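job 3f2a | input accepted
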Amino acid sequence: QVQPKESGGGLVQAGGSLRLSCAASGRTFGTVAMGWFRQTPGKEREVVATIGWSDGSTYYADSVKGRFTISRDNAKNTVYLQMNSLKPEDTAVYYCNIRTRTIYWGQGTQVTVSS
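job 3f2a | predicted structure (115 res):
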């Protein structure tokens, strides 16, 4: 079992920044990738960014390219999402995702961007 624990959400004005963190505990050996997804009411959960755990390869959704940066600290089993130039449409619940042989989800953290 792997337990992801998110932190760092909150309320920010448009144009501002937030940094999300997700610390993984438990049986993290064999982690393939970690990432961030987000979801708004009535919509499907969508990928925001992912990072390969061994090679650090990254993927970003087109909507966040150039504004968000995903990074990892392997020693701390932690993944970060630096979010800059936030827009009201970034408002969502952000979920941490950990992929080993099983996929694990965090409980989510609310990000609200006011206009």
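job 3f2a | The CA atoms of residues 23 and 78 lie 4 Å apart.
job 3f2a | closed
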